[in-house]
Amino acid sequence: MKTVADKQVLVAADFAGVVLKDAVVAHLESNGWTVTDIGVKSLDDPNPEMFHRIGLKVGAKIAEREFERAIIFCGTGMGIHIAASKCPHVHAAVVESVPAALRAITGNNVNVLSMGGHWIAPNLGKDIADAFLYNNLGDGYEWWPNFYEFHKLAYDELDNFDYEEFKKNGFEFPNAIDIPLADVKKPDEFKSAKADLSLLGNKGCGC
Questions:
Q1: Where do the H-state alpha helices sit in the chain?
Q2: Any residues with CB less than 8 A from the CB of 190 and at least 6 apart, and which?
Q3: How far apart are the first and last CA of the chain?
Q4: Under 8 Å between Cβ of 70 and 10
Q5: Segments forming the whole domain that contains residue 131
Q6: What is the pLDDT of residues 5-45, one digit of tens each?
């Protein structure tokens, strides 16, 4: 598997996301990432592949464990995200801000992040990509009791979800385990701008 630890990432865009994709790819490559692009390469492509077919191809590469994470782009980020989500083991999110990107990876362990070329400015797209790629489940929430365990349980149940078994069980989880997660306030020592920016792997925020 090509992993983020080895600075490997999969990307793909349709014609509406290609400009934003190119900006993000250039940024990543300038920071040492190896980027594999399986989508539309240029606005001049005379026969660009449709968004949903590109999304399914990305989802398949995640499902087959060829890549650990992917970033995908279309006009809104929605359609290509829906397609990728049809594949098993894909945990996808449409993101339009750096805080949402951070929570998508640190709280939900998303492995496919989607952005919309119609809405996301290039510099914001770069920061969103950094937030996604330089963090992992639980990062930055070590102070919150059971934060990691609570979200890891949800991820595991979703990753192993079988609809037919769920249906047979009356749409209930058999032998469900609950992990308590209290709504606690963030300690003062974790509230500084420096602490928040550290979540970006010392990249900071260029927006």
A1: 18-30, 51-63, 78-84, 98-106, 122-133, 147-159, 163-168, 193-197
A2: 143
A3: 32
A4: yes
A5: 4-137
A6: 999 999 999 999 999 999 999 999 999 999 999 999 999 98
164, 115: one domain: no
Assign residue 125 the CATH number of its domain: 3.40.1400.10
Marked catalytic residue, from 74, 87, 205, 207:
74
Q: Are 179 and 86 part of one and the same domain?
A: no
Q: Model pTM greater than 0.85? A: yes
Clarify whether 74 is annotated catalytic: yes
- Based on the structure, what is the number of domains in the chain? 2
Question: CA 47, 48, 52, 57 torsion: positive or negative?
Answer: positive
At 191, is the pLDDT very low, low, confident or very high (cuts 50, 70, 90)? low
